[in-house]
Amino acid sequence: MTTITEGAYRNHPSCRVLFIAAAGRSGSTLLATLLGTVDGLCSVGELRFLWQRGIIENRLCGCGVPFRDCDFWQEVMTEAFGGIENIDVERILRAQDSSIRVRHVPRRLVESRVGIDPKYDPVYLSALTQVYSAIHRVTSGAIIVDTSKPPIYIDALRRLPHMDVAVVHLVRDPRANAYSWSRLKRRDSAEGTAFMEQHSALKASLLWSLWNVTSRAIWIKEPARRYIQVRYEDLVADPPGESDRVLGMVQRSSRDVPFIAPNLVPTGVNHMVAGNPDRLNGGQLELRVDQRWQREMSRRQRLVASVVAAPVMHSFGYSLRNHKAGNGG
Fold first, then answer.
1. Cβ atoms of 304 and 205 closer than 8 Å
2. Quick one: 26 exposed, middle or buried, by C-beta within 10 A (0-12, 13-18, 19+)?
3. Residue 116, SS3?
4. Domain of 81, in residue numbers
5. CATH code at position 284
6. Please, what are the averages of pLDDT over each run of 10 residues along the chain (329 residues)?
7. What's the CA gap between 41 and 256, in Å, rounded?
8. Is 0.85 topped by the overall pTM?
9. Is residue 3 part of a domain?
């Protein structure tokens, strides 16, 4: 069994990570798919779910085959640990639970504000470093696009000495976000039919507020090359312009995206390990305005989402009036 030690993560080559911080159902899979079409960038999905959804549950990789059968992830796991069979998954999951659970967010937020260095389980930090470093080597040094989302996860990641992390904070109208969470949607499953988790408008809006406020609080003091905020509605309205802003953080531009129209991009095979099942859709990515939530969301759901998110909506550029919402939910 591969031993994971406290000091193991200090001896790996530096790798660059472009992290998408967002509340769930905010369009991170769409943005990651777009970025993954650029040479030298590798979209890996929600890497924080690698252990549970990938190794244990063996869900589908973005390439369409079960995780354990994917050649890319087999190579990464061999490079990182000598093979999946050598990974003490339960130990890593316990370390993850003690480090990045939602219940730890308030304490981490207070620590960041008063300048206290948070303590993360060294087993978890070591495991993360081995995986990211292995992806870095397998992809010949590609910039890793990670859609893991929670700010507490990014905070842990950026504290690893070998990581060069830039954060794209993707924000979507909380009413569109809540509507997306209410919809019944199939999820990636290697065995039969399964559906993604659903949230009430109350829970979705509470999580939207928590995730976005915490992400901004932790990263707002970082320079523009380390942190930018992107509204999802702006992304689907102007894909070249907004992708240019994002790619500028890693010294690329929208000219590197193979647009065949301002809102249309051809896509190839990806290896996103978890996330929205839309990552399984190959061929072409179309970014389009979608106003279904304005027509189909119940007045009660809209009221609940608006009331809960109202204290912080304006600071993210939203008002109580309707805004257009894009595809991806």
1. yes
2. buried
3. coil
4. 8-326
5. 3.40.50.300
6. 43 83 93 97 96 95 95 98 97 93 73 76 94 96 94 86 93 95 72 73 95 88 91 96 97 97 95 88 87 92 96 93 52
7. 11
8. yes
9. no
